[in-house]
Write a structure and sequence with these properties.
By secondary structure, the chain is mainly α. 72% of the residues lie in helices and 2% in strands. The chain is globular, with a radius of gyration of 22 Å.
Length: 513
Amino acid sequence: MDKKITTFQLCLLSTGGMLGCGWLFSPFYGYQTAGIGVLYSWVITAIITIIIGLSFAEVCSLFPVVGGIYRLIGITHNKDLAGIFLILGWLSYVVYLPLEAQSVIQYLGFWLPSLVTEIRGQIELSWAGICLAAVIILSITWFNTLLITKVAKANSLISMWKILIPLVIAVIAILGYGHWSYFSGKANMVNFSFENVLLAVTSSGLAFAFSGFQNGLIFANQVKDPVKALPYSLFMPVLIGFTLYASLSSLYLACLNGNSDLLMNTTAPLLGVLSLLGLNWLFTILFIDAVVAPLGTTNVYVAATSRILFSVGKELSPNSILTKINKNNAPIVALWINAFIGIMFLFPFPTWKELVNFLSSIVVFAYLAGPVCVLALRKEQPSLERGFKLSHPNLVSYAGFICCSWLIYWSGVTNLGYLIVIILIVVIGYFFYNRVKVLSKTIGNIWYLLFYLGCLWFVSFLHLIKMIAFPFDNFIIGCIGYLFCHILVYYRLPSKQINININSLKQESCKIS
């Protein structure tokens, strides 16, 4: 118990999760999508992240358990619903590993062309690149079999590097070579519309870039003072992330004047800008950071993903092999399972932008657990002593659920369809794993979740065929979010069962430290 993470280290675990490959691509894609509106997109993303995160901060300060936010809905709702959320949360985290590793190889491919190949205008990893990415995942997985305090200390050093280098490069480029007149110039206003501002939040990876805030919540049981540390681990990373991402977007706005075709290499946008401005002396520094940042983030996500899979084992089969830990109290089996599944995702998949868009919808879907848990616990367990207590829980929770609904909706009709298919596959897999006698029973326990996604997809389809115009479609999504938040809270467990679940968590003897 004396080997705990400090508040500062916990904050940097969240910050490190937000500064992986996202800063290399999201500011550029957001700039292409919304022009000067990308700055508004970053503001909206930061505000939404704070609103959603506030719900988690209250519940995680009550129950700082392994697996964090993905176990919370198992306190207040039926086991089937909890299992679905856990598996989806784990799946979304597993895909981060190959995504970050791919980013490293892609930038290495700028100097080592044999690591990448161009197929139909898209940059993909060659077989050599896939093998090197697999080695990266396996190496970082081995490092995570050591004590978590070593992982946290290593991450702290890498995170400081990841924060400073992009900021310094952005400041040098803007002050030395930028033109402030470009910000309000016609070129940067071409794609500026409120609909594109919202579209950029998910389609350009902005929501994905901020998703690392949850890492602090996942490691909640391994911090010295979770009640005080959790709020800091939410607000500080969002503030740092917003400053860094907005600065990088401003670099493109001030230096390109709306013409991204000026870049020599859009597969490595920042390298292209430095080359265009003649800042070749910064190439080496940026290249090192382009490799170090995703590697540091991969390190964080390997640790976090293993805790999520460990929590899946704790919830679905407490004595299974998934809950095995080594002499360093690391979930050894969960670590290596994640590594090999992550390697499988290295084989051909869509472009970085498309994959991130889909990943964002899965990640945000799992966020729905937070607001629902806050409301259910306030109704059934109002006397619980809350270390971090929301002043207006109803307002924050309903707003958080509606914001999640908007983020999922903005991912587009295609990704909504994929999300529905993924959830159905997870339901069927969950059914066979638990040997439930009647599949309809499992579906009956989560019907409102499937119906909720169906409603989002239907509105998105109507907007696609221009039967519902912007912004009325978003107003409808807001109403749907409010309605289904109420429905999910209504289907909570009774107070007696919730109390049993709470006591079970408090008695959880296996603490990873």
